[in-house]
Amino acid sequence: MSADKHSGGALRILILSQVFWPDTASTAQHVFDLARELVARGHSVEVLASRYPYENPSHRYPAFEKHDGVQIHRLRNTGFGKGRMLGRIIDSLTFNLLIFLKLVGRRRNSLDWLIGMTSPPLVSFVGILVARWKGWRFCYWAMDLQPELAIEASLFRANSFPARLLMAMGRRVFQKADLIVALDHYMAEHIRETRGAAKVTVLPVCPVMQQPCWAGDRRQNPFRLANGFGDRFVVMYSGNQAIMHPLDTLLEGVRELRDDPRFLFVFIGGGVRSSEVTRFREQHGLDNIRQLPYQPGSEIHISLAAADLHVVVMGNGQVGFTHPNKVYGAMYIGRPFLFLGPKASHVGELIKVCPKNLHAAHGDTASLVRQLRNFVEAGPAHWRAAGDSNAEFAQQQFDPRTQIAAMAETVEMIADVVPISVNGLAVGVERAKIRAVVESS
After folding, report:
1. Are 135 and 228 part of one and the same domain?
2. Is the dihedral of CA 138, 143, 146, 148 positive or negative?
């Protein structure tokens, strides 16, 4: 059955995502926000996820639980974790195999919508195969693109067999899906050009927080107090430190500023590059670096607000392949950000609209250090003005409730989704219902 046959009624929706609540990975939080919104709208929502957290494979979540009306089924795939590439590949393959078996075992009339993510690779390929067989509609929520990112990270060559195989399988997903959701117009254009896909709409993800933002004095922020940041100017990188997030220029800047007592560089989260940060800190004896674990979703608005400047990183060859969504959280809570990456990108375009933020190219450590010193010397009033400007823009364009509602309504009203332009902002909207701007250029 299709969504059109359920106009005004409940849809039966199944989401495929390796990570889900209560995992702290950003994809887990975005998927949970959508699932909860769909349940609130009267739909039946199930999720197939892994029993292992993204960062801690030694822990196991329950095989089944129901949270905020969402039915969560967790699969017991292998849990080697992210330490070694072979282990990650085996985890991915076993998860996809279990997904396939679960989907094949479902009745044709048990679902209306199947929503597939990009993690792990091939999960949406498995999903589209079964969806076309069973007659379910399929939505591909493209958080990033493979094999492009793997090639950019030098995991394999562009013309290698794995790259060609992944490209062919990805092309089938894009061409057969009923709805493709890209996170920015660069990604949408790349999908259209390289995958031959026509049904692409643009809906960026929202800030991963629902709580009121911390609005007190920066020096009284509970996270700052608990971690002894004092009155130092805190430059924060919060989130996954993945292979596609080159940190070399930032770390060289940290080393250049080692003797400037005004600065403290805080890295929150994990990922394969987290160990690089540790090695760099130990090698150079840097006491201006602080490394902390992922923070609970319920506290993230406080930890993010403990920063004076947030760092957003994008590799030079990654435009159209991935989307640095941490920029929304920084802006939404009223903090300025430093963007390390190509100017011709989604975040580069945000800086055109909000010019008080900083930008430095990869490799240009001198410019980075100069801008940081100038920004600090401008004083707290300037920092607040930059943050207030970001917050005003983000609350108008990236309000979480509006963003989540837009995605849910897109799923509900797929037949009426068209990309349009409003006031020069590239957006994806549902013609009859979705009025809010959901992506800035």
Report:
1. no
2. positive
* Residues 23-42: tens digit of each pLDDT: 878 889 899 999 999 999 99
Tell me the per-residue pLDDT of 265-279, one tens digit each, with 9 for 90 and over. Answer: 999 988 878 899 999
pTM: 0.84
For residues 241 and 380, state if they share a domain.
yes
Phi then psi for 306, rounded to 5 degrees? -75, -10
Is residue 263 helix, strand or coil?
strand
Asked whether 124 and 118 are in contact (CB, 8 A), the reply is yes
Helix or strand holding residue 15 (H, E): strand 12-16
Helix residue ranges per DSSP H, 182-340: 185-195, 222-227, 248-256, 274-284, 300-305, 326-332
Look up the domain containing 177 and give its range.
3-206+400-430
User: Is residue 441 a part of any domain in this protein?
Assistant: no
Pairing outcome for strands 337-340 and 358-360: parallel
CATH number of the domain bearing residue 85: 3.40.50.2000
Cis preceding-peptide flag for 147 (omega within 30 of 0): yes
Cβ atoms 295, 268 nearer than 8 A: yes
How many other β-carbons are positioned within 10 Å of the β-carbon of residue 378?
13
Neighbouring CB atoms inside 10 A of 433's CB total: 13
User: What are the phi and psi torsion angles at 263 (to 5°)?
Assistant: -100, 145
